[in-house]
Amino acid sequence: MTAADQQVGIVLPVLNEQQALPDMFDVLRGLNPAPAEVLFVDGGSTDASCDLIREAGFRVLETATGRAVQINAGVAAVQAELVCILHADTAPPGDMVQVIRDTMADRRIALASFTPLIKGPDKTRWVTTFHNWIKTWYAPLITRPHLFIRGVRLLFGDHAMFFRRRQFLEIGGCTPSDAVMEEADLCVKFARLGKIRMVRRWVQTSDRRIAAWGPLKANWIYFKVGILWAVGARSRMAKDYPDIR
After folding, report:
1. pLDDT tens profile 164-189
2. Which one is predicted more confidently, 49 or 245?
3. 47: number of CA atoms within 13 Å, CB side?
4. Angle subtended by helix axes 67-77 and 182-190, to nearest 10
5. Quick check: 19 and 87 in contact, CB under 8 A?
């Protein structure tokens, strides 16, 4: 792998994230080695998100609302060969860039991610963390068994997924019409090119949805939205996945 192939860009799709952004700025500044690029992609925030990003010295690209649209625009706009999609409420380890480089040095891997640890100010959500981990396997096994046999595993937004930019563009990126579960189709597409791997390193992701909905409701929503994706009821997914910001 050449030096150019080792460049890592971070794309952060955001919408009304002014509360989470200051902590994220600190996380990004603390990464060692530093990424070659950091690009925030704002989907029409009505709060101070864009102003905060610019004031902190980071680039922001403004697009239409929709995480799939934002991710596609962000990946197209960066130049780094390795790209990580990071949510504003998810904190990666300090050596994130090196982990990405080491993982993607294996050319057999097309798509990879970290392992999310769901945590709030007062507690770690171990049950939901376990559910989040195991559904990577059971979701494709139940909903797409023929693809599971071929090696498809489903990674999600809070996993901090990463991949090669040229391959993302080659497969057409995320399905633009997907408001949620945009990562699921991406996994199916990437599985045609190689292995999907979840690296055994934590990223700490906020429990704000669980805090707002309660653990039982949150896990039910996660399960239901997955089933809606599986049966092709895409128009209902966003309705059944309410925004908590």
Report:
1. 999 999 999 998 877 677 788 898 89
2. 49
3. 12
4. 50
5. no
Token pair, residue 201, equals 């390193």
Tokens 């996660």 label which residue?
222
Give the DSSP H or E segment for 131. Answer: helix 126-143
Return the minimum-mean-pLDDT range out of 50-59, 164-173, 208-217.
208-217
Of 190, 192, 240, 187, which Cα lies nearest the Cα of 217?
A: 240
Question: What are the pLDDT digits (tens) for 88-101?
Answer: 999 999 999 999 99
Taking the C-alpha atoms of residue 45 and residue 18, their distance in angstroms, rounded to an integer, is 9
Cα separation of 10 and 144, whole Å? 30
- Beta pairing partners, 117: 204
- pTM comes to 0.88
Rama region for 214: left / alpha / beta (φ>0; ψ in -120 to 50; rest): left
Q: Do 237 and 180 form a contact (C-beta atoms < 8 A)?
A: yes
- CA end-to-end distance (rounded Å), the chain: 41
The letter for the amino acid at 19 is Q
CB 199, CB 104: distance < 8 Å? no
Tokens representing 76 are: 């197209």
